[in-house]
Amino acid sequence: MPSSSYPDVMEKLVSLCKRRGFVFQSSEIYGGTGSVWDYGPLGVELKRNIKDRWWNAMVRARDDIEGLDAAILMHPKVWEASGHVAGFSDPLVDCRNCKKRFRADDPKIKGTPGTPDAQCPACGMKGTLSEPRMFNLMFKTFMGPVEESAAVVYLRPETAQGIYVNFLNVQQSTRQKVPFGIAQIGKAFRNEITPGNFIFRTREFEQMEMQFFVDPEGDHMRWFEYWKEQRMAWHRALGLTESRLLFHQHTPEELAHYARAAFDIQFDFGGTLGFQEIEGVHHRGDFDLGRHQEYSGKKLEYFDQPNNRRYVPFVVETSVGADRTTLAALVNAYREESVEGETEGRTVLGLHPSLAPIKAGVFPLVKKDGMPEFAEKLAGELRTRFPVFYDESGAIGRRYRRQDEVGTPFCVTVDGQTIADGTVTIRDRDTLAQERVAADRVGALIAERVSA
Ligand code: GAP
Predict the structure, then answer these.
(1) Distance of CA 209 from the midpoint of ligand 1 (Å)
(2) Quick one: average pLDDT of 24-35?
(3) pTM score, two decimals?
């Protein structure tokens, strides 16, 4: 894996995210819940903008993909068919001395767990690590009022299975013809042994998944290549720096036994984390539909009317984490820089304007001479088109800096000249250039730049 030439900004980002209301630790007042995070007022906007970009590109802009919102709780047999009950496990070792738990393949463990020479990476004791045992990552719960007699159900560890079991429902209700896809965004849960790196690996997260159904006797490999390229282009269009993105092809050891090909899209998170997967593009053959057919006893075949053929389609899957993409966007955007003629530098989130939680800050230069009234009215008008933050307190430079730090691409200032001729200045977050425009053109101008 190529090492990173980008700095590690994670610690600074975690602090900025809390201070400015992007991401908070879950249940913080009780000491926090392990690797579960809450999105604050700015974070929820940022993540929603990312999900909207995905939904627009994958569902709304296409006539060959349908949307779905399947339930989190599913029939327990789904997870037997999918292979998650038997195989969705990680090897776990315990330290008998300090009671800490690790993945058996944790690179920090020296020696072979279960042998006297193995050393615990936490307390440093030798010979205290247990033999590895398999630990299923699915969260179990009970359906029904009486725990003992109720059915065991699982919180879904991926959204994809909701798509497979609805394959024929969607196909028949929409009269789609193969090739076509089904897409959904939703929560998934994994009891990860080694979560961490902020919102990179968490126990509750959101996935954006699309299963594309193709003819097994047709050009399925061409569709696989098509989706690889489409998905990489999507990440670039979000503003992720090209040199921080790459494809990683699964080696034969990494490739699932049923998969015909698999690539990850990796992003360089900087520092020691470096390049990590943010999305998987997988050619899954007919494994999933085939297994659900077998376990449910129901046919999941597509009927190709013109050719009078019935078959179980192959699936090309694209699966991306909403939280992980949010983190990539934040890491990519974070920068500290000096400003000419000023002693204090500035922190900027150079987010793509379409992702920025707030599109415009609106400020009266001073709190007198009719400027606040004009600015408040303008902010109200702009707010009907996009999120706006009105701020009249403190020096204008400080107000600019506060917006830079949360990624607001434009700041509109009402000054003495506004009252005379109805013009305002628009300051660009990245170039710091200020242009003077008529106040009644500001909404259209910013809307145009945000969607560009
Ligand atoms: N249906 C295929 C599937 O779930 P995956 O590689 O296990 O494949 C796909 O997950 C994506 O979901 C990952 O690339 C990542 O972005 C996200 N993801 C997986 N586990 C995660 C976790 N514990 N925390 C945050 N995101 C996660």
Answers:
(1) 10
(2) 94
(3) 0.94
